[in-house]
From TrEMBL:
Cited function: E3 ubiquitin-protein ligase which accepts ubiquitin from an E2 ubiquitin-conjugating enzyme in the form of a thioester and then directly transfers the ubiquitin to targeted substrates. Ubiquitinates BCKDK and targets it for degradation, thereby regulating various metabolic processes. Involved in the positive regulation of neurite branching in hippocampal neurons and the control of neuronal spine number and morphology, through the ubiquitination of PPP3CC.
Record keyword Transferase present: yes
Source organism superkingdom: Eukaryota
Name of the protein: Ubiquitin-protein ligase E3B
Keywords of this entry: Synapse, Transferase, Ubl conjugation pathway
Catalytic activity: S-ubiquitinyl-[E2 ubiquitin-conjugating enzyme]-L-cysteine + [acceptor protein]-L-lysine = [E2 ubiquitin-conjugating enzyme]-L-cysteine + N(6)-ubiquitinyl-[acceptor protein]-L-lysine
Subcellular compartments: Postsynaptic density
Active site per the UniProt annotation: 990 (glycyl thioester intermediate)
Domain HECT: 702-1022
MF (Gene Ontology): ubiquitin protein ligase activity
């Protein structure tokens, strides 16, 4: 327990401590109050002082205008010093404007040194203060320039004022004080100007000019006047010229000035004399020397990012087009820097949209941020980029190739399709493309041809790398680039001749071995091949048959034969050697380029032959070997079928296709076997409503049922079931008839092209109810026809970027691009217009119809099954051979019953009637009468199942019980049981059987047969 004295003591101490703390708090409060009061008094005093100064400045500028020019420089200096002391941009912008006008007015005074503001620089007491003041004033001018908008009239006037201030005090040429006797002072004054300019550069002078120029020029029409643009560009040049083009100033000049969108275009239009200054100082050469260094170029690109790197490229290309002599001397450096810039942009080009990509009108999907403020000037930037693939630059870059003469060509080939007899001999130079070359290790030996490490080859390779990089980077103007590169007719053939001369012997092996060498040299050689393939593919794609076969633009036909042989071998080797299986990146791009060019040539040859017979086949690839590899699921065999099935004979491909179908039928249980029978679908079809009944009864069938057995019972026009049992023959007749009807243009599901009358989906097919379901049904019927081995009979320029269509009597305008009806077709966009119209007519306009047709076809026929056929081959697969019936082939594969034989009198008459008396159409009707198909089988009558048969009959079909010994003997010895003159020939289409009475006269046979085949009433003739 505490005592009373101890408690009192503790209480006393605690009370003293509290009192002490309260006194300290009170002192802090008093100090804070004094500080606040002092600060507030200071604020009030400063505010009052600022008001007084501003009032004084306003009174200074309110003086009469007539006397303002007479004010002494010292007065202006003092008032400027006061303004700068209290200067705030928002409050004092008008005062600063008046100060600048006052200073410029003093500089214009005549013969009054005391009035000239610059005269203070000569005063020993004021020189340093004046220099600091003018630095501050000029930097405030820069800050205002950074904020002003040149499209606003008032701001435009202020921009002119502040630029005039900068122009006046960064160069001594307009200083009157230095005229005459003051000329001796010019070096010292120039030093002061350089000091001022250095100060501005340190604070970001080039950034200010970049903002100003971009705001004024990053648009389709510049809003900077000639004087403004001249002043701004002159200011930009002054530091660079003063520093004698040092790297430290060339770098910011490139980053901030030369990267302004379409700057050179606007300079050439508004103030072309500024470009003369650039040329007089040889600026382009200095830019090339600076940028050809890889490190410097990468630094510039990283500072600018992709969008503005394109702007820099465009301006450099425009400068290059204006200075061809410089480019001729600095080609290597210019090509190098352009390639590096494109490679930098390419790193960020994406093939598809994602959360990390942005759309760029030239680069496509781009993973860097996109400056959408450049969109308005993108048209001009693109026009600048077009200099890269313009004729002048191409002539400069490819001068080594274009200056050489090709070997003399023979006379053009005949205009008719080439045959093995009229194919022209291949030039000896081009033959070298197929000779074996040494390994890559031995390429450098000077055995013959061009050494791969020679200066000439390296130069051409670098140029090809540049253009190939531009194709993969500038994705949205790829067609423009290809069109430009193919403009000169002699470039591609001379480039091909150059390729053929590479290495000791030139040729295929050289490029194949480059695939296995990850060296820079190999990449460049392959880039050359890719560029050649991409350009040639583009050219031949847009040329018509007259230009290819008659005029033979760029390539002679014998050159196309040689090139296609090279490409065929190259692609085959890439696949067969396993290079394509795991290809990615550059190797995959190479394969796509070479394969694309190959297929264009192959498809062109399929339409109209220029190559010899069996030109596309690989003699070293046996079909049996390929089929064995397919059985083992080898990837390379599958790739052969996917990419170059034409290296296998057509007959073997058809057999392979049928084998695939047969295997699937077995797998699905659609084949008759001892253990099970396939499910059969029965349908009844009225001949008068064949399409409607077929559509209603078949459209709901499942994919499995469509592939299965379908039996048809026809009902004639009288409502009576037709005679005959469907054992596939009636269904084949149904298929041919229904396909013929849906493709009839009168139905308006399909239309025909003018001239060759080829079918395509009708854009106005929507007038039919459920028209898309009808197209799907057509696809199913086509698929079923191919699945069952049925060979059926399937048979202006505008002024704007729009397409006008007459729809049900009304004119409908379709814009090919947004706002296309207001965009005129010009020389610049006419190629794009052609592509847009073709894409609209053959894709956009009939997209839904085509998709519906394909959706009906593909469930029955797998895409990989038909990928092995070209377009004409697929047409033959669907429609059968479009050739006349080969009677000799039919006769060779005919089987006779009932006493008939090949030398029988009636049989001899039959073949003679078919050959001599029947027209081709009647022979087709005869074939349809017997087989239900009007065209011969794809591979000939040897593949008709069951085989074509002719049987001698003595009685009508109702009384026919089959062949007996007596009937066979009577038929064999031409003994008639009774005169058959009143009976007509009949047929069993399910069995491809012709039932022919034993006629006594050839004329009777001809008459009865012609009547029978023309009736087209199925089994009812009996």
């Amino acid at each position: 327990m505490f005592t009373v004295s101890q408690t009192s003591r503790a209480w006393f101490i605690d009370r003293a401590r509290q009192a002490r703390e309260e006194r300290l708090v009170q002192k802090e409060r008093e100090r804070a109050a004094v500080a606040i009061q002092a600060h507030f008094r200071s604020f009030l005093r400063r505010s009052q002082l600022q008001k007084d100064i501003r009032k004084e400045i306003d009174e200074f500028f309110k003086a009469d205008d007539s006397g303002s020019s007479k004010r002494s420089a010292l007065c202006i200096f003092k008032i400027a010093r006061k303004l700068l002391f209290i200067f705030k941009i928002k409050e004092d912008n008008e005062r600063f404007e008046k100060l600048c006008r006052c200073i410029l007015s003093s500089m214009d005074a005549e013969s009054e040194p005391k009035v000239w503001y610059v005269s203070l620089a000569l005063s020993k007491d004021l020189t340093l203060l004046w220099i600091k003041q003018i630095k501050d004033i000029l930097w405030y001018c820069c800050e205002f320039l950074e904020q002003l908008k040149p499209e606003i009239l008032q701001d435009s006037k202020l921009i002119t004022l502040y630029l005039t201030m900068l122009v006046t005090f960064t160069d001594t040429s307009t200083w009157k004080i230095l005229w005459g006797k003051g000329e001796s002072l010019r070096p010292a004054m120039n030093h002061i100007c350089a000091n001022i300019m250095g100060h501005l550069n340190q604070h970001g002078f080039y950034s200010v000019l970049q903002v100003l120029l971009t705001r004024g020029l990053a648009r389709s029409r510049p809003c900077l006047s000639k004087s403004t643009l001249t002043a701004a560009f002159s200011l930009a040049l002054r530091p660079v010229i003063a520093a004698q083009f040092s790297d430290n100033l060339i770098r910011p000049f490139l980053i901030h000035i030369v990267s302004v969108p379409a700057l050179v275009t606007h300079l050439s239009t508004v103030t072309p004399e500024r470009l003369t200054v650039l040329e007089s100082h040889d600026m382009l050469r200095k830019f090339i020397v600076f940028l050809r260094d890889e490190g410097r170029c990468r630094d510039i690109c990283e500072s600018l990012e992709g969008c503005h790197t394109l702007c820099l490229m465009g301006n450099l290309l425009h400068l290059g087009s204006l200075s061809p002599k410089v480019l001729e001397e600095e080609t290597d450096g210019f090509v190098s820097l352009l390639t590096q810039m494109l490679c930098y942009c390419q790193k960020y080009v994406s093939q598809k949209k994602s959360n990390l990509t942005h759309w760029h009108p030239v680069l496509g999907w781009f993973s860097q941020s996109v400056d959408y403020g450049l969109n308005e000037s993108m048209y001009l930037i693109t026009k600048q980029l077009q200099f890269l693939w313009g004729v002048p630059l191409i002539r400069i870059f490819f001068s080594d190739i274009l200056s050489k003469k090709l070997l003399e060509h023979p006379e053009p080939a005949p205009t008719q399709p080439a045959s093995p007899q009229n194919v022209l001999p291949v030039k000896s130079l081009l033959k070298r493309a197929f000779q074996k070359s040494a390994s890559v290790r031995n390429i450098l030996r000077p055995v013959g041809g061009k050494r791969v490490d020679s200066v000439e080859v390296q130069k051409v390779c670098n140029i090809c790398v540049l253009y190939q990089t531009s194709l993969t980077t500038l994705t949205q103007i790829r067609l423009q680039i290809l069109t430009g590169l193919t403009y000169l007719d002699d470039l591609l053939p001379k480039l091909w001749a150059f390729i053929c001369e590479l290495g000791p012997h030139g040729g295929l092996k050289l490029f194949l071995e480059c695939l296995n060498n990850n060296t820079e040299e190999s990449k460049q050689l392959l880039a050359m091949l890719m560029l050649f393939c991409d350009c040639s593919r583009h050219l031949v794609t847009i040329l018509d048959d007259i230009e290819v076969y008659e005029e033979q633009i760029s390539f002679k036909l014998e050159e196309l034969v040689t090139i296609s042989s090279f490409l065929n071998s190259f692609v085959f080797k890439m696949i067969w050697d396993g290079i394509v299986e795991n290809a990615k990146g550059e190797t995959l791009e190479l394969f796509q380029s070479v394969h694309g060019w190959l297929m264009v040539l192959y498809e062109r040859d399929c339409r109209r032959r220029f190559a010899p017979e069996d030109h596309w086949l690989r003699k070293d690839l046996k079909p049996s070997v390929l089929f064995q590899e397919l059985e083992k699921d080898r990837k390379r065999a599958q790739l052969i079928l996917q990419y170059i099935p034409h290296v296998i004979p057509h007959k073997n491909r058809v057999l392979l296709f049928r084998n695939m179908v047969s295997k699937e039928k077995e797998k699905l249980g659609l084949v008759e076997s001892s253990s099970a029978s396939p499910h059969v679908t029965h349908i009844t079809i009225r001949r008068s409503r064949m399409l409607e009944d077929g559509y209603e009864q078949l459209r709901q069938l499942s994919q499995h049922a469509m592939k299965g057995v379908i039996r048809v019972k026809f009902v004639n026009d009288l409502g009576v079931d037709e005679a005959g049992i469907d054992q596939d023959g009636v269904f084949k007749e149904f298929l041919e008839e229904i396909i013929k009807r849906v493709f009839d243009p009168a139905l308006n599901l399909f239309k025909t092209t003018s001239g060759d009358e080829r079918l395509y989906p009708s854009p106005t097919s929507y007038i039919h109810e459920n028209y898309l379901q009808l197209f799907e049904f057509v696809g199913k019927m086509l698929g079923k026809a191919v699945y069952e081995r049925y060979d059926g009979d399937i048979a202006d320029l505008g002024l704007t970027l729009s397409y006008d269509e007459d729809v049900m009597g009304q004119l409908v305008c379709h814009e090919l691009v947004p706002g296309g009806k207001t965009i005129p077709v010009t020389n610049e966009n006419k190629i794009s217009y052609i592509h847009l119209v073709a894409h609209f007519r053959m894709h956009t306009q009939i997209k839904n119809q085509t998709a519906a047709l394909i959706s009906g076809f593909r469930p029955i026929i797998k895409p990989e099954w038909i990928r092995m056929f070209s377009t004409p081959e697929l047409q033959r697969l669907i429609s059968g051979d479009n050739a006349e019936i080969d009677l000799e082939d039919l006769k060779k594969h005919t089987v006779y019953y009932g006493g008939f034989h090949g030398s029988h009198r009636v049989i001899t008459w039959l073949w003679d009637v078919l050959a001599s008396d029947f027209t081709p159409d009647e022979r087709a009707m005869f074939l349809k009468f017997v087989t239900s198909c009007s065209r011969p089988p794809l591979l000939g009558f040897a593949y008709l199942k069951p085989p074509f048969s002719i049987r001698c009959v003595e009685v009508s079909d109702d009384q026919d019980t089959g062949d007996t010994l007596g009937s066979v003997l009577r038929g064999f010895f031409t003994i008639r049981k009774r005169e058959p003159g009143g009976r007509l020939p009949t047929s069993s289409t399910c069995f491809n059987l012709l039932k022919l009475p034993n006629y006594s006269k050839k004329s009777v046979l001809r008459e009865k047969l012609r009547y029978a085949i023309s009736m087209n009433t199925g089994f009812e003739l009996s």
